[in-house]
Amino acid sequence: MIRPHIKVILTAVLLLCMSAALRAEDTYAVIIGISNYSDKNILPRPHAEDDAKALFDVLANKDYRGVPADHAKLLLGSDDADRHAQIATKENIIKSLQWLGENAKQDDLVFLSFIGEAGTLTDEGEKICYFATDSTVKNRAKDSVLATDIGTELDKLKSRHCCVFLDVNFKGFTPEKGKAPEPSYGDHAFSEFLGAEPKNQKEDQPKEESAANGRVLFIASVGKQPSPDLDKHGLFAEVIVKGLMGAADVADKDDDKEVRNGYEPDGLVTIDKLSRYFGKQVGELVREKFKGQDDKRPDPAVLGGAGTHFVLTYNPPARAEALKREEKFDALVKDKKLDEKYSDEGKKLLDRMPKLKAQQSLRKEYEQLVDGKITAAEFEQNRDKILTSMKLRRTDALVFGQKILAAASKLKENYVKTLEEGELVNWAVKGMYRRLEEKIPDDIQNQLAKTKDMKEVDLLNLIVDARINLGDREDLGNHKDIDIALMRMTSHLDPYTTYFDREAAEAMNREVNGNFRGVGIKIRKDPETDMLKVITPLRVAPAYKAKIMAGDIITRVTNFVDEEGKKLPKPETISTKGLKLNDAVEKILGVPDTQVKLTVQREGVDKPLDFTLTREEINVESVFGFKRNEDDSWDYMLDPKSKIGFIHLTSFQRNSDADMKKVVEKLTDAGMKGLVLDLRNDPGGLLPTAIKISDLFIDDGLIVSIRQRPPIPEERHRGHSAGSYLDFPMVCLVNGNSASGSEIVAACLQDHKRAVIIGERSFGKGSVQTIAPFDGGALKMTIATFWRPNGKNLNKSATTGKDDEEWGVRPDAGFEVKLSREEQEALLDHQMDLDVIPRRDRTEKNPKPEFKDRQLDKALEYLRDQIKTARNNPDKNK
């Protein structure tokens, strides 16, 4: 069992100071853990109650938090008189949540934890429920704690500092029939804990902010696998409890260049520190304890809204040191050895490690002062130098302001709805301060209230003043100030309008254009080794030709040139262990005709393999067949006997229409009698490509109408009979992830009665975006809506989203084939697996079961019937 231990002995004075700092009387905790259930169809959780007790003990311990006995409730599946535990019945759980709502005030800290089992109420995986001791599988709709029950009670919670620890298996029961379904979390996952989507949300509220302010959720696993158990505790509780006992503070050193955590522990375990510790430690423990056991690999997450940076517990040794210094500092001020004007600043910096480097330097000066290493005069001199270094030149702020105004002007000129520059500037300034969690000065706040009526010169001065006030700081350097301001500006518009920073813009361009400069491999982080794993080489690319294979582990990357292609003084070799995926991609991509060496560990091969590859311009496939041939090319003839072709389009890239035309020509030459066009899980892409692909399969007539902001006239794109393929029946497969370009094609084929639509209703994205390069990044703006040939718009966001409303593309009557949650995930996995070029040198040890595709089966049934009918009635089709 995890037990709190004191690492140092504290004096009586320090204990009193720490008790005051903890504000334990303002903390509330409800901890729930259930190991065994009366209904044996609910799976046991052997360590759940021990985990709950360990968490409860840490929070009750005065050295870590000191939650008073009358402010804490422990609910278990069995008795525990020593801790005054209650039995975790549904009634007691609901009452405990009600108690939180009635007692916890706005500034109080609230802990809530549930460790046990959960499930769903329907076979579709909808409506989450949490099992109490008296719950039953058969009557879980009535006797379990529903997610809506929790949400109803937590909606009454006034606290802005709420931390939830959730460790459940969402398939933690054996249903009456079949197996427990995968949960369907929906658009607002875990809103029962994070807070419901704000009602009557204003248009100018940022679209990414949906979690309730000040709530955060640590969840053991949101994936298919629950969090595993260790010898005495669950892995989740092992990490969380140790982190709360101070390990998160001790481990939170500045060993990551991307995270400025400070130069020493400050004694505070904050949400941020625990989140970083949790993310690293879970992966390390899984790699250490469960190597090669994929069924023991959870998918942990930390979810939360704005303002979740509050203190949870304390790290006693470091906190004792901080309190000593604060006491000495107070004595300096009291004895007038230091000017009282430094009092608030000094206490704030000595109490908590600041995130900015300059402020950390200032904290060091205060520490040196109270430690007697420098005099007050030396301190003041050093402080002045640091403050001077934090000032931003007005010329730099002016450049920033001009960029923000230029972006606002571009949005105003092109956006599908009328916009005002003053409102866009308002959003940018407020959003930047909100993102940095800085208070807006009163004078700037007053100006922000008048932006709608300001002239451009006044708006520029406002932006400049707002930027100068924030100073010269690393979290706004290297273009980050512009990136943040524009991301926040666009976040108030529709879901598809956004700003991409340089790195994201480059990735987007690679995806849209369907090409990139590299060696032609798809990679991901390997959770087993924390290195890079090859998903697949791309056919005929350098990596493929060199015989790099799927499953290879890239252990090192050696570069001979820099990112501009210039030769390095000496080769640069980087280990991929712990390397972020984006950083790894940047190291492997590069200028064509330059070389990079990949060191690979391959299963079944004792020694590492070195591959020196020459980078090329790589074209990415988007037109897939139904399986790969022996030479790894695609086989597009799904049914050779009936001559039915199959094309899966993964996205609408720049060359997709030309590639598809080649495939259709090849199939036609092979005598194709019917075609399945699979657009399932295709998110769309380029509008011209969607129009050209539609035109391949219709005679003439309207394909799509594009409506921009008046007075710009409507664009009507029509088909041309020349070059169209009209002599065979078609099926178009769509589902809820078929969007944008997919919907243009499907709607066109449906309205022209060229293809039968089979599957499930499409996503419902009826808008058009343009991508405008901007200062190294890119502005993606909604500039129009598109309308199908029958004159209807597809946009779901223009409706309330109900099933009986007009949006998206519906399957034709009698051809809707709904897949379960498991089938949807199996389809996506199947499509991803098809992309992988398999190893031909071995047989797969644990081959996946064959995927049963009911939607494709329906398509084949229809086409075979059409082909048979045409064969029996040849004159009818002339």
Secondary-structure-derived class:
alpha+beta
What would the average pLDDT be, to the nearest integer?
91
Quaternary status: single chain
Tell me the major beta sheet: 9 strands, mixed
Which stretches are low in confidence, meaning pLDDT under 50 for 5 or more residues running? 1-22, 198-204, 254-260
Per the principal axes of the C-alpha atoms, what is the gross shape? Answer: globular
Number of helices: 25
Beta-strand content: 15-25%
Q: List how many beta strands DSSP finds.
A: 32
Work out the helicity level: 25-40%
**Distance separating the two termini:** 80 Å
Quick description:
The chain is an alpha+beta fold and 878 residues long.
Explain what you see.
The chain has 878 residues and is of the alpha+beta class. Helix content is 35%, strand content 20%. It has 25 helices and 32 strands. The strands form seven sheets. Strands 1, 2, 3, 4, 5, 6, 7, 8 and 10 form a nine-stranded mixed beta sheet that branches. Strands 14, 15, 16, 17, 18 and 19 form a six-stranded antiparallel beta sheet that branches. Strands 21, 24, 25, 26, 29 and 30 form a six-stranded mixed beta sheet that branches. Strand 25, helix 21 and strand 26 form a beta-alpha-beta unit. Helix 9 packs antiparallel against helix 10. The longest helix has 21 residues. It starts with 11 loop residues before the first helix and ends in a 6-residue tail after the last helix.
